Amino acid sequence: MVNFFVAVVVVVVTGGNPYSRLMALQRMGIVDNYERIRDFSVAVIGVVAGLLVQNTLKFLLQFGHVSPYLGYNSLKDYFPTMEMRPNPQCSNAACLERQKEYLLEKPAGDAAIRAKMEAEALLVPEGPLHADNEWDISVVDDSEPEKTDATSSDEFQKPPAAEPATTSFDDIEELRKQLDALNAD
C-alpha cells in the first residue's frame, strides 16, 4: 500500500506523463504492477471528485449541510462530520500566528452569520409562493383518501375474454390450396 501512495505522490508532484513515471518506479523496484496502481489511482480520484461535487452542490443549491470535513467511512457506511482544527502545539510560528488571528476574528464572523440567518428568517413571506397557478396545482388534505372510480395500477386487470376459435377443417384445406397455388407460380 505504501508503494501505491509513493507512486501517486510522484505522479502528482512531478506532473508529465504518469505512465513514464510509473514505469520508472517499476524499474527502480518500488512498484510491481503499474497497471494496478493506475486503476487504483483512477478509482481514488473518482471517489474524491464525487465527494467534492456532492459538497459543492450542497453549497451552491443551499440544500443540506455542507461538511467542513470531506470523508467517507466505508466500514460503517456513513459520512463523518467533524471539523478539522489546527494543532495548538504546532512548532511553526506562522501557523500559531494564523491561529491567533482566527480566534480574534471568529466571534465577528459568527455574529455576522447569525445576523444573516435572522434577516433571512424575517424576509420569508407567509403568503402563497406564486399568485398565478398556471398548472392548476393544489394542496389537498390527505388525512382522508379520496375515493375515485378510476382503476388502480396496483389492481390486476383481467383481459377481455377472447372468443373461442371456430376454424373448421374445410377452412384449413382451403387455405392450404391457396398456399400451394401461390408457391406454384
Automatic annotation (TrEMBL):
The keyword Nuclease does not apply. Keywords: Membrane, Transmembrane, Transmembrane helix. Residues 139-171 are annotated as: Disordered. One of its GO terms (molecular function) is ubiquitin-like modifier activating enzyme activity. InterPro entries: Ubiquitin-activating_enz. The chain crosses the membrane at residues 40-61. Coiled coil: none annotated. This is THIF-type NAD/FAD binding fold domain-containing protein. The lineage of its organism: Eukaryota, Viridiplantae, Streptophyta, Embryophyta, Tracheophyta.
